[in-house]
Specification:
Length: 410
């Protein structure tokens, strides 16, 4: 059913074949580590807006979504998500919900009995549902693409349209490739940041250590800047521990073996489905002492594998996402005390949604309180409306890409 809904245009669900490789190559030039490093001025600006918004509201779920969405929409289409209530965000939500409903095992008889697909439309009501879901998402991606093409500056849409790999592709195929990236960016970074806040309110002890590091490296007169990020090992460890404590894709994305394989003497035959139980592995008491505790110390100057999936299908957006998380989390911890609002939060399986590919914390409350009047002042003054100029930033990104030897296509 998922393939009916996406007409095989969702890269996550494509088999690894030549067509997949073509789409992967198309994306690679805008998602590479070198390209992603050029995008930091955008994350720098959007994280300032995030802090200012959090001075006015504790609705961090909405603000994280706006932050993450605005970064990918600016890159993909050249326009910002200003309020988080834009129709594009609403429709993207709907589309992601649709995908969740069609990827649920057992929900659609046609998934277990594929011959049902030969039934004529009147006897196969799921075909109409699939067509409606496909039309909704195609309209979103096409409208965004057309909007991006008339913009003055470089953006991913222009880049894709002028790429050699795109020569044989239809507009719909290109629009879906861009839409896949935009959707991936909306739903993921924001949820990792929510898990981080959940850790802050349920295991607050680590916050003091993080703020001590920030005070030593940054002081209280300015926000952490891009050059500070490499000097903040405890912040990096918090991000690693957030991924370990609760992975947002708890059972990963199933992969299939393309040839017979042996693991520790066991034969894994060609065509087997491999499901990486990220959450189970990361809560194994033999691997992690007190696995339910949130202890960033586990990761000081260390990294774990699997945060971004694995193998040839590893998340290509990980360099962009890592920078968004580093800016967002370092700056929030610098500016705010993040504390519980209401009664203690019980963090067990029931605290998370389990009806989609991404498992998010169910809504909970937290208070974002400036750490001092000085911190409040710095946040209030950290950006003014005239500095929120995405066109200027995209020009800067384009220039930076050229200067590091990349070939952005406009
Ligand atoms: C914190 C944020 C993110 C997390 C935790 C995350 C995680 C993942 C995971 C677990 C996968 C599956 C990998 C596998 O099959 O083994 C994946 C795939 C993917 N992600 Fe991300 N992701 C994030 C952000 C992003 C962003 C910002 C983008 C794009 C701008 C992106 C684009 C993609 C794409 C295109 C795939 C499909 C890759 C394929 O099937 O070959 N992701 N991501």
């Amino acid at each position: 059913m998922a393939n009916e809904v996406t007409q095989r245009r969702n890269i996550l669900m494509r088999p690894f074949d030549n067509e997949f490789l073509l789409h992967q190559r198309l994306e690679a030039s805008v998602l590479s580590p070198r390209a992603s490093a050029c995008y930091t001025p955008l994350q720098e600006m959007e994280s300032r807006v995030l802090l200012q918004n959090l001075l006015r509201t504790n609705d961090f779920i909405h603000e994280f979504e706006r932050y993450a969405a605005s970064i990918v929409y600016s890159l993909a289409y050249g326009f910002r998500i200003v309020t988080g209530d834009e129709w594009q965000v609403q429709v993207a939500h709907q589309a992601l919900q649709n995908i969740s409903s069609v990827t649920q095992v057992g929900q659609w008889a046609v998934d277990s009995l594929p011959f049902l697909n030969y039934l004529p439309k009147p006897l196969a009501p799921w075909k109409k549902t699939a067509e409606e879901f496909y039309a909704l998402e195609t309209n979103l991606h096409m409208t965004n693409m057309n909007e991006a093409l008339v913009r003055e500056d470089w953006n991913w849409t222009k880049d894709f349209k002028n790429a050699k790999e795109a020569e044989g592709l239809s507009d719909t195929a290109i629009a879906w490739d861009l839409g896949n990236l935009a959707n991936a960016g909306v739903e993921t970074t924001n949820v990792v940041m929510q898990v981080f806040v959940m850790a802050c309110v349920s295991h607050p002890n680590f916050i003091a250590t993080a703020q001590k590091e920030l005070d030593e490296v940054v002081g209280s007169d300015r926000l952490p800047e891009v050059d500070d990020l490499d000097n903040l090992p405890y912040i990096a460890a918090i991000i690693e521990e957030t991924f370990r404590w609760r992975h947002i894709v708890p059972v990963g994305i199933p992969h299939a073996t393309t040839e017979d394989n042996y693991y520790k003497g066991y034969l894994i035959p060609r065509g087997s489905t491999i499901i990486p139980l990220f959450n189970t592995m990361r809560r194994d008491g033999k691997l992690f002492h007190a696995p339910l505790d949130f202890r960033p110390e586990r990761w000081l100057n260390k990294k774990q594998s699997g945060n971004w999936g694995y193998g040839r299908r590893i998340c290509p957006g990980r360099f962009i996402a890592t920078n968004s998380l580093r800016f967002g989390i370092a700056r929030m911890l610098w500016a705010f005390n993040i504390r519980l609002d209401g009664k203690p939060l019980l963090v067990d399986e029931s605290a998370f949604t389990m009806d989609g590919i991404v498992s998010a914390p169910k809504p909970f409350k937290a208070i974002f309180e400036p750490r001092s009047e000085q911190h409040r002042r710095v946040v209030e003054q950290c950006i003014c409306p005239a500095d929120i100029d995405v066109s200027k930033i995209l020009k800067q990104i384009h220039k930076q890409q050229v200067s590091v030897g990349l070939n952005p296509r406009v």
